[in-house]
Amino acid sequence: MWGLWMLVRPGREPIAAVVFVAASALTVGSAVVLLIRYRSDGDLGDADRPARWRRFLSWPVVAGLVGSISLGVAAASALLGAATFATVLCLVRWGPGLRWRGVILVEVILAALWFAERPRYEIPEIGGSFAVMFAVFGGMLPLMIALSLWSWDVVLELNRARATEARLAATQERLRLAAELHDLQGHHLQVIALQLELAERMLARDPDAAADQIRLARSSVDEARAGTRELAGRFRGVPLPDELANAADLLRAAGLRVSLDVTAEAADAPADTLGPVVRECTTNVLKHGGGVWAELSLRRDRGFWHLGVANDPGAVSTLGRGAGLEGIAHRVGAGGGDVQTHRGPDRFAVTVSVPAVPGVPGVPAVPGVPGREGGASGRNGAAIPARSATFTAPRPADEGMPR
After folding, report:
1. What residues contact 126, with CB distance under 8 A and at least 6 apart?
2. Which keywords does this Swiss-Prot/TrEMBL entry list (predicted)?
3. N- or C-end of the chain: fewer Cβ atoms within 10 A?
C-alpha cells in the first residue's frame, strides 16, 4: 500500500517505482537472512555467538540499511525508511533488555516522523488519506517483529529448561543407582569377606565349621546377585502399557496389521515379568510369523493377568525347536504363572497368565517333574516345564554372622 501511494501521488517518476521494487527486494532478502541467523544463533550459547558489534555490522544489516534508505528516498518518506530499518534491526539478536529499549526509542522516533509527514499523506486526487494506515504500519511492524521474536526466545528457553531438567533427572537417577549399588554390594562384599576370613581361621581346627562358612559365603554371593538383578530391574523397568505400545509400533513399522487391546488398569500389571515376555513374543512374531497381522491383548480376570499374542503363522516355522517358549515358561513359572500355546492352520497364539499378587501359584505342579511348577504347553502340545532359577543354600541358625 505504501508503494501504491507512491505510485499514485502527483509528480510520480517511473524510475522511483523501479528503485522502490529493487530496494524492497534487497530489504526483504536481508531480513530473511537475519531471521535464519537469528534461529541458528538461538541454538548456540552466549560464548559461541558472534560479538554484538559484529552482528550489528554484518552484511545483512548493511544491506537492510541501504534498502531502507532507498525505500525512503523512492517514496519520499523518512517514516518508511526508518520503519523498515527498525524492522531489520529488530531481527538482530541483542542482549537481554536491549531490544525492548530500542523498540521504545524507535516508536518515539516513528511517532515524531509520522506527525511531521502527516500532511503529505493527504491525496486530494483520490479524496482520501493514508495517514492512519501509515501510522499503524510504521508503528506496529517493528513492535510485532519484536514480540514474535520474544515469543520464539521464550519457547527456546522452555525447551532448554525441559532438556536441562531431563538431564538433571537422569543424573540424579544415576547417582541414586550408584548409591544403592554401593550400599548393596558393599554390604554383601563385607559379609563375604568376613565369612571367608572366618572359614580360613577355622579350616585347621574345625573343617566342618569352615565348610559351613564357605556355604554361607556362597549364599551371600547368591543374595548379592539377586539383589543386583532386582535393583537393575527397578531402574530398567518400563510400564507394561508402554511395552505393549512399543511392540505394536514395531510390528506396524514392519508392515503388519496390528490390533492392540489393553485394559485400563494395565499399569498395575507386573512389568518385570510380562515385559520380557512381550519383547520375546514380538521377536517371535517378526521372525516366525506370516507377516500379515498380529494381535496383542492384556486383561485381568479372577486374580490373574492374561497376556495374549497371536499372529498368522509362517509357511515354515522353527519356533517349536527354539528356546523362546522355554525361556518364557521359565520366567513365568518362577512367579507361579502359566503359558499356553495354540497352533491352528491360520492362527498361532500364546497366552501367558500370571497371578495379580506375586508369589501366588497359578497352576498345579507338572506330573513327573518334582519341584517344578507352572507347566506350559509347547507348540505341538508338549509340556514345557517352568524351571525356577532361585537357589538358597542351607544356613545354620547358630553362626551369628552379620547379614
Report:
1. 8
2. ATP-binding, Kinase, Membrane, Nucleotide-binding, Phosphoprotein, Transferase, Transmembrane, Transmembrane helix, Two-component regulatory system
3. N
